[in-house]
Amino acid sequence: MTESSATQDSRARLPRFTPSSKVPALVGTVGALIGLLDLATGIIPQLRHSRVHAWAGYLPGAVSSIAAAASIILGLLMLMLAHGLKRRKRRAWTAAVVLLPAGVLAEVLHHRVSIVDTALSAGLMVVLLTHRSQFTALSDPRTRWRALFNFVVLSAVSFGIGLLIVSAHPNSEVGNPTFLDRLKTVLYGLFGFGGPVHYVHDRTADIVGYSLGGLGFLILFSTAYLVLRPEHPAAVLSPDDEEQLRGLLAKHGGRDSLGHFALRRDKSVIFSPTGKAAISYRVISGVMLASGDPIGDVEAWPGAIERFMEEARAHAWIPAVVGCSETGGEVWTRETGLDALELGDEAIVETASFSLSGRAMRNVRQMVKRVERNGYSCRMRRVSDLDEEERARIRAAAADWRGTDTERGFSMALGRFGDPQDGNCVVVTAHKKIEDDPSPHGDLKAVLHFVPWGEDGISLELMRRDRSADAGMNELLIVHALTNAQELGIARVSLNFAMFRSALARGERIGAGPVLRFWRGLLVFLSRWFQIESLYKFNAKFQPVWEPRFMVFPTHRDLPRIGFAVMQAEAFITLELPARVRRWIPFVSKEPQRRECAHPEHKRLAAASGRAA
C-alpha cells in the first residue's frame, strides 16, 4: 500500500485548511482597545473620572499612585498581547486572563472606574473563558534577536509614553521646564531617579515617578527574561536530517531543480510518516514558508504535506509555498484547499541544443568574444576537484564581492560554498593575470556556483564578479558552462528565476491592453530596486525554455504578510543591525547558522576558511 493511500482515511477526517475563527481576531482587537484605554486614562488626568472618591480616604496616597502607574503598565502589556491573541497563542490567553482582573483592580485603586473599560474587560474575560479551546497555538521558535528587538522597540515606546506622562500635568509643574528638562526627567525616571521637572503636588510627582519607574522595570524584566530563557533556534537542520534529505535527493532529486536548496542549514524539515518525502521550511513573521516542491517520492508527498499543515495549525502559522512547480502546486492545492498564484518562470537551457550561432545570439556572441580578447579565460570543475586552498580563495572572493551585509537567498540559494558534502556542485571561474594587481584574490575575477539537479542537471546558486572586471563576465561564465557542461555529463542547466516574466513579455507586445501595459509599467518601475526586468532580459539572452513557478497561499488577504515574509527570507528586507554593530553585542554576535549546525567537518572547514581569508 502506498503512503498516499495509507493516509487517505486520516486526511479525510481532517478538515481542509481554513482561516482561523473570527473570535481570536475580535479578542485581539478588543484587547488592544482596552490597552489603549488603560494607557489614556493612566496618562491623561482629565480622563480620570472618579466614581469612588469616597474610598480615597481609606486608601494610602502611595497605593493610588502605584495603581495609576500600574494602569499604564497593564495597558502597555495588553497592547503587546493583542497580536498573540489574534494568532490564538496559549501563552497570550493565559497572560490576558491574569491581566484583565488586575486592570480592573488598578482602576478601583486609582479612584476611578470607567464604565466602558470595565464593560470591555468583563466582556473580553467572558469570551476568553468561553472560547479557551480556540487559544491552543504553541509558541513560535525564537532566538536571542527577540531580546534585542524587545529592548529597542519597548525602550522607544516607553520613552514616548514617559514624555506624555511628564507633560500631562502642566498645571502642577514648578516653573517653566524646557523640552530638554522633560527628556532628562524621562530618561532619569526610567532608571528610578528624579529629574529636573518638579511638581507642586506630591501625588502628581508620585504618579509620574512610579509610572516612569514601572516602564523602566518592564523594559528590564522583559529583556532579561528573553535573554535568559532557554533558546529554541528558529531553524535547525540536524546532521541526521541532512543525511536523510540527501538520500531522498539521490533517488528523486532529478524531479525539481530547487531540490538541493532544501539542504540550507537555516531551514527546518518535516518528513512524511514513512520518511519517503520531506518538506523544508522556515518560519518568518508568523508564516511557515516552504520553497520548491516536496522532496522525495511523489506518492509520499501528501503525507509530508499533511504533517506540514498540522504543524502550521498547531502554532497558528500561515502556511505558504514559494517557487513550487506546476505539479507541486496541483498537489498542494488538491491536498490542502489552498490557492495558487503564478510567480514567474525559471529559465532552463538544454546543453545539447545550445549554440552561439544565429542572429538571436549575436549580442551574446560578440560580448563573449570581446571579453575573451581582453585576456579572460574560464575553468569549469566539480567542487570535489578543488583543493582546500582554492576553495577558501573562491569563498573569500565571493564574500568580498557581495554587495550587501547579509547573504541573500532562500528558495534558490544554498548559502555556502565548498562544504565537503557538496562535492557534486559545479564551479565556473573566470581568470585574468594583471601585473601589479591590488586584488587580494589574484587572477580570480568572477565565479558561478551550481548545485546538482539530479544526475544530469545543475541549478545556478551564486553569481559574483569583481566590480573592476570587464562588463560581460556573467555572460562569459554562463556560455562557458553551457558549452562545456556535457563534458561533466550535464544535459540541462537551470539559470535565474524571472519574476512575472509572462507579464513583462506580453505587456511589451503589440496589442497589449491598458491593464497589462499598466502592470508591466509598474514592474519596470519596481525594477529600479528589485531585479525584475533585468533578470528576465538577462535570462532571455540564452534562449531558454521557460518553466512556470507558483506561490501557494491560504487567502488573498494573507498575501501582503506572505510577501513580507518572502522578502525577509530572501534578505531583501532585513530586520537586524548591520554586521559591524552585531559583533559588539555578545548574545547576537554569532551567526545562527554556525551555531545551530555543529557538524565536526563543517567546523573544520570553517576554521580552514578563516585562516585562508
Automatic annotation (TrEMBL):
The chain crosses the membrane at residues 23-44, 56-80, 92-109, 115-135, 147-168, 207-228. Keywords: Cell membrane, Membrane, Transmembrane, Transmembrane helix. Its main location: membrane. The keyword Cell membrane applies. Residues 247-553 form the Phosphatidylglycerol lysyltransferase C-terminal domain. Residues 21-225 form the Lysyl-tRNA synthetase N-terminal transmembrane region domain. It is found in: Cell membrane. It is a multi-pass membrane protein. It holds the Pfam family LPG_synthase_C. This is Phosphatidylglycerol lysyltransferase domain-containing protein.
